[in-house]
Write a structure and sequence with these properties.
Number of domains: 4
Helix content: 25-40%
Largest sheet: 6 strands, antiparallel
Number of strands: 25
Oligomer: single chain
């Protein structure tokens, strides 16, 4: 599978896109005003220990304390403990790593199980386990790597062998472990010298982590629109994978690089609630507090002969596109997928096989539950960073993120009810109000009778006008209070 990377660098933001066989599958963002936290290591102070939820809150120097669950605490040789207060006390200084970025009202989630990713391995200080990427399928290669790691693994250090280590020499893997060990020693030395809360280690910039984690033998081309970034990227790749230096290209054009590769359009589509399939079917994405729900519909696709074949083709196409969209939008947590009901078990198996096949391309770990009788598929996907929607969007000021607002009819009725209440209780002879364009048009067509009745029943003068500077559905009511000497105006709302 050919992989291409497109990088757009500016002073305010660095963004990148990963393409597989010419189709974008992941977006990455790094903004100058907002630092990435995932992977960073801190020396923190325990602020609260809560045995009731077996968790603690750790001050790492940010506005919100980080959350530490007992299952994320590295235990010593004594093994299992019954309660978190046996491990932590308020005021204790500990070294933690950010496992999940802060999201919404929640602070970062941290762990004391530190992991340092390198090019070929991940080093885990304080642990005693060894693992090999499941993507390395060759049993011969797995046996070779296992024997090597057993031989060179540092004492009291866990090691996970990454996919890109396949076929690499013993010297390359050994050097990677040694460089990570040197990094860990520097981090621990710094932890001894400074007071908490403090930063001990920050993950490399987006471009470097992207090259480290994504680039493998399937690399096609890398395009970057900054000459300064181009030079630094060449030097970095030359130091770790020199055979790929010729695949880096400087995009020297006045045209925006994302526009040139049609990535802006793909980015816009990735934020849409509805995604169209090539056949004419479509997907609908709805995000709730607890999960993301994806609905599959046949839409415009009516098939040719058989209903079951029409449904099968739509679901197969949907399975492939859902796997891509989950990566593209970086959706984490619980995901519920409502495929179109299929009457045949073999069709269900075909859809699940395709779905699993395309999910296997995802670098983020996910867990899949087999399809239910209702055609529902449950899955979870590890959440580390903010999803695409959270990075690029914010709740609407009008609907507060609900996706729906009160109809103009409802707003008009509420407005007229408020005017009636003022007329009933006010001693003033005149009540005036201004309304937005849309609300004003509705009142002209539908509210005249009601307003005339108010004038007659309460003997009030109602003066109103449409204000083009007011929001379309907003209104402002003013009560005019008159006495013998003067006239005053009280703004009610």
């Amino acid at each position: 599978m050919k992989k291409d990377i497109v990088i757009d660098m500016s002073e305010a933001e660095v963004r990148a896109a990963l393409l597989e066989n010419g189709q974008v599958v992941e977006f990455f963002f790094e903004r100058a005003a907002e630092k990435r936290l995932a992977g960073n290591i801190f020396k923190g102070v325990v602020e609260n220990v809560l045995p009731g939820i077996q968790s603690a809150f750790v001050n790492t120097g940010f506005d919100k304390n980080a959350f530490l669950f007992i299952g994320d605490i590295l235990l010593d040789e004594k093994g299992k403990v019954n309660s978190i207060d046996q491990l932590l006390q308020t005021g204790k200084e500990i070294v933690v790593q950010v496992a999940k970025e802060p999201m919404g009202t929640k602070g970062a989630r941290v762990t004391t199980k530190i992991s340092l990713p390198g090019r070929y391995v991940v080093l885990m200080p304080g642990m005693n386990n060894m693992g090999i990427s499941h993507r390395i399928s060759s049993s011969e290669e797995r046996d070779k790597l296992k024997k090597l790691i057993d031989k060179i693994r540092p004492a009291n250090m866990g090691v996970i062998v990454r996919t890109v280590a396949e076929g690499k020499s013993n010297e390359e893997i050994k050097e990677d472990i040694e460089s990570l060990l040197r990094l860990w020693n520097r981090i621990m030395k710094k932890a001894e010298l400074i007071s908490a809360p403090a930063v001990l280690y920050e993950e490399a910039s987006l471009i470097y982590t992207l090259i480290r984690d994504v680039v493998d033998d399937n690399l096609g081309e890398i395009w970057i629109n900054s000459y300064f970034g181009f030079q630094k990227l060449k030097d970095f790749i030359d130091s770790i994978i020199p055979r790929f230096v010729d695949r880096i290209h400087f995009f020297d054009s006045k045209e925006n690089i994302f526009e040139h590769f049609n990535l802006n359009r793909e980015l816009e589509k990735a934020l849409c609630r509805k995604v169209w399939l090539k056949s004419g079917g479509y997907l609908v994405f709805d995000r709730t507090e607890a999960m993301t729900v994806i609905d599959v519909n046949t839409g415009k696709y009516i098939g040719k002969k058989d209903l079951q074949e029409t449904i099968l083709k739509t679901n197969l196409e949907a399975a492939e596109e859902i796997a891509r969209q989950v990566r593209l939008r970086d959706i984490g947590g619980i995901i519920l997928i409502d495929f179109i009901d299929m009457g045949k078990k073999e069709h269900q198996k075909m859809v699940m096989n395709v779905f699993e096949q395309f999910l296997s391309h995802d670098r983020t770990r996910s867990s899949l539950v087999q399809m239910s009788e209702l055609g529902l598929v449950e899955m979870t996907r590890k959440r580390v960073r903010k999803n695409l929607d959270a990075i690029l969007c914010e709740p609407c000021n009008c609907c507060q993120g609900e996706g729906r607002v009160l109809s103009v009819e409802t707003i008009a009725i509420n407005f007229l009810r408020r005017v009636e209440e003022i007329c009933r209780h006010s001693h003033s002879m005149t009540v005036s109000f201004t309304v937005g364009q849309e609300l004003g048009e509705y009142l002209k067509n539908n509210g005249k009778i009601f307003l005339n009745n108010l004038k007659r029943v309460y003997s009030k003068e109602l003066a109103w006008k449409i204000d083009p500077n007011l929001s379309l559905r907003r209104y402002s009511i003013v009560e005019v209070v008159e006495d013998e000497d003067r006239e005053s105006i009280n703004k009610i709302e």
